[in-house]
Amino acid sequence: MRVLITGGAGFIGHNVAIYLAHRGFDVTVYDTLERSSGDAVRMLRDAGIPLYRRDVREWHDLRGYDVVVHCAAYVDVAESFARPKEYFENNVIGTASIAKAASDAGAFFVYISSASVYGNPVKIPISEDHPLRPISPYGASKAMGEQVVELYSSIYGLKYVILRLFNVYGPGQNPAYAGVISRFIESAINRMPPRIYGDGSQTRDFIYVEDVARAIELSIVKQPHNQIFNIGSGKHISILELARLIMRLANIEGEPIFDEPRPGDIKHSCANIEKARKILGFEPQTTLEEGIKKLLNIYNKVKNLTPSRDT
User: Which residues are catalytically annotated?
Assistant: First the structure.
């Protein structure tokens, strides 16, 4: 099965591309490379995955592909407040363009959305029928992308699945756009306390990137047409508890540093994943502590291989 992954040199995209290639799929990657890390590009090339410099805002002939996994997006919530126009242009127009191309090619379309479309939830855990009330330009752009996909289904016959990812973490994040776990671990590796924005009582549902790749594989194989699924762990933890967990695993003493809350940060988040369990057969495999230990090992190896500035 031929699979095209847009944004395939990004954090989630390159992990998914390598995972699917190892699972026997014929994978190709499109990416502008403007926000990709050199490590991700190298890993794709080492895996023998074709990588083309392409912008999804332009139309592409996708005939020959069976599936398009659309990961390409600007993803920084805070940045989206400063650059809303760019976020809507890239995330909405890009989705409109690549979804139409997928429809023209008769390809199954996997739209990678975000839990940010829900905004501040009115109930926890959050199920797929929760109202969409995004509170950031980023969240709004992902919700609008969903509307485009659903519209194209009704007028062009696009067959799709929408995956609303919760807080994804794992190896290979670009430091400029890294999530809270990667930032906390980087602080821990440098023997520094993590910095928390707000009082730390806010909660998040963290899902390891390999589990996300597995959910995407299940979506490709089962192709449940025109369905929306939450992809998370189904568990939540406060940011303060997370910081203390990472400090304990990294043997860091003291307390986290607290800073002012950031705009666009929701208070609580936790996925109801019963629908994904029932229809996709999805079950997260990596616990939060296991995932953090994996990342600590990776970061420590990288640090040990990096020459000191004094040498």
Answer: 138
